[in-house]
């Protein structure tokens, strides 16, 4: 889960800044700290994932793992090679966070790294073995979910920043509503594609008895709740400029998004029906 949280926190806010602030200013320094924190969370999550996988594949307790055990996982498995690429991207993202000042090029760089890391999750998931259509659907789904949930991180920061006023908040919500519709459409389309490949082409066993399908249904319910909250924020709370109500609504939507990320991480290691 840490990897998905960190990746969304790297890609989404970068996307949010570039979309809403064509000329990033010093007022965004706090959000850049969020990006740096996301990089650290992502790196920790990746390291823990490597150690856990090495323990599982070598059938050894974590305390008994050697450097050679971890190296063999990274160099001799497809999963490990993808993780090596992910680690390199994470290190580059941390360097970019620390070395670059507030500028458009800095956020473009972080957005590219974040998008590449989001993409890498597809190559260690179920879609990597099912051909281009399923893999492409996974990639788009991950990019869209990272952009949406990561942007919620940024919205929550925006509402608690002393640099931002009500008109700025409303402008950001209004601008984001258009691209948000595209993200929702992408999530619905790719979610349906993934369901077709993983569920409806599976066994004939009762689907609702499958833990995989049960997790998908919970994720769908949360997605619909997030969609309802987004509509409430855009069309009711933002026009009324009720920042207090908007803040709590966004907190709720972001919390649901974090649960969705947790479900995605579990679904990725759960056997489809």
Please mark out the parts with pLDDT under 50 across 5 or more consecutive residues, or reply none: none
Largest sheet at a glance?
A: none
Report the structural category: mainly alpha
Q: What letter string, H or E per element, gives the SSE order?
A: HHHHHHHHH
State the domain count.
1
Judging from the principal axes of the Cα atoms, what is the shape? globular
Helix content: over 70%
- Would you tell me the overall average pLDDT? 79
Q: How many individual β-strands?
A: 0
Q: Figure out the total of helices.
A: 9
Q: Calculate Rg over CA atoms.
A: 19 Å
Strand-residue fraction? under 5%
What is the terminal separation in angstroms?
23 Å
What kind of oligomer do you see? single chain
Short précis:
The protein has 9 helices and no strands. It is mostly helical and 273 residues long.
What topology does this entry show?
Blueprint: H1 2-20, H2 29-58, H3 67-76, H4 78-99, H5 104-122, H6 132-159, H7 166-200, H8 211-240, H9 243-267
Helix pairs in contact: 1-2, 1-5, 1-6, 2-3, 2-4, 3-4, 4-5, 5-6, 6-7, 6-9, 7-8, 8-9
């Amino acid at each position: 889960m840490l990897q998905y949280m960190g990746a969304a926190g790297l890609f989404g806010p970068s996307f949010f800044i570039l979309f809403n602030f064509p000329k990033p200013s010093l007022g965004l320094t706090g959000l850049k700290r969020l990006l740096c924190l996301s990089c650290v969370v992502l790196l920790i999550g990746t390291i823990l994932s490597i150690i856990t996988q090495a323990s599982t594949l070598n059938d050894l307790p974590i305390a008994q793992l050697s450097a050679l055990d971890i190296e063999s996982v990274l160099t001799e498995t497809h999963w490990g090679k993808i993780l090596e690429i992910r680690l390199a991207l994470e290190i580059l993202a941390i360097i970019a966070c620390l070395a670059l000042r507030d500028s458009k090029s800095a956020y473009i760089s972080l957005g590219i790294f974040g998008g590449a890391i989001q993409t890498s999750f597809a190559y260690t998931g179920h879609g990597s073995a099912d051909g281009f259509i399923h893999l492409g659907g996974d990639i788009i789904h991950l990019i869209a979910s990272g952009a949406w949930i990561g942007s919620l991180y940024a919205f929550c920061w925006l509402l608690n920043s002393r640099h931002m006023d009500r008109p700025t908040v409303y402008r950001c919500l209004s601008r984001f509503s258009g691209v948000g519709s595209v993200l929702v459409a992408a999530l619905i389309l790719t979610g349906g594609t993934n369901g077709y490949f993983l569920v409806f082409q599976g066994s004939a066993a009762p689907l609702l008895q499958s833990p995989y399908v049960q997790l998908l249904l919970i994720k769908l319910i949360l997605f619909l709740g997030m969609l309802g909250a987004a509509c409430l924020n855009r069309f009711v709370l933002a026009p009324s400029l009720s920042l207090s109500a908007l803040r709590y609504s966004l907190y709720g939507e972001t919390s649901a998004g974090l649960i969705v990320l947790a479900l995605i991480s579990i679904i990725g290691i759960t056997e489809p029906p």
